[in-house]
Amino acid sequence: MKRLLASLLVIASFTVFILAVRPQGMVHSQVLNQRVFLPLVARNYPAIYKIAFQSDRDGNDEIYIINSDGTNLIRLTNNLYRDFEHNWSPDGSKIVFVSEQDGNFEIYTVNGDGSNLTRLTYNPADELYPRWSPNGLKIVFVSDRYGTSNDEVYTINPNGTEETRLTNNSTSDEYPVWSPDSSKIAYVASGEIYVMNAGGTGQTKITSKSDMYVYDIDWSPNGNQIAFRGEVCHFGCIQDIYVVNVDGSGLLNLTNGSGVSLNPKWSPAGTKIAYSCNFDICTINANGTNLVVLASNPATDMYPSCSSDSHSLAFSSNRDGSFEIYIINSDGSGLTRLTTNVGDDWIPIWQP
Known about the structure:
With 352 residues, the chain is mainly beta.
């Protein structure tokens, strides 16, 4: 019995070792002298995701994808004109973006492997800021078409049909974002946040701070709040991160004049907001507590983006010269540079 227990202990110890250093699949056990299968649930490896970003490494902005471990760089667009403002489809199979390859800014989609480039809009005016709805059925964007000098909000089907104008105002309507359930759209007009139904009805202003201009809005995963960058200029300009309830109540300044605060992005769990704090990468609780500086450097760190499992953040930094894509664990460990080139790599966005 003692010899049997000792053998079992050796087998268990060897199995634990194998789980720690080998991926799933068939492996050879020296103890059992045969091949055994280690299931996926026993793996101890971080998940590999794809990250989309834009880069001017080849002379003008193009859209690229790279794995979160730095492998498998794919160039999605290849033309002599700017391609930018990229955004994933909710199933992670496609990217919508803006391109001027046909003479002006139009909306296009492309598969995640670079195939099936499709132009969605055809208009002499400029179309900008496309965002895919979370249910995958619509793409929202802004355009200054029809002889207007200001942007209005539109939606279109991902196949290019049913283009619909949602706003018709005397001032520009910009930066549209979807609610998590795809039923509403928030946007900025005259420096204030408005919310409307996905069909354009019920346009309601939810902020009313006359000395503040709003940028960088991002809807919380639970649908209850919107985070944004608010700029107040009196004797100089101060940029802080705020949250406000979707009904307009509960406006809260999270950063309170602590420096230049930019690019707020909710964590997938909805408990934290990542942002660029004095050009470092920080996180803060949605109630303004527990400010944590994750990545600090004398250079410029911007555009944080949270992975869907909340394990990591990607961001752009010029700490090594030109702007490159980096990732860091949500606890501040594991800083890793993903790209290396003489151009600038900007605005990483994790695949859903």
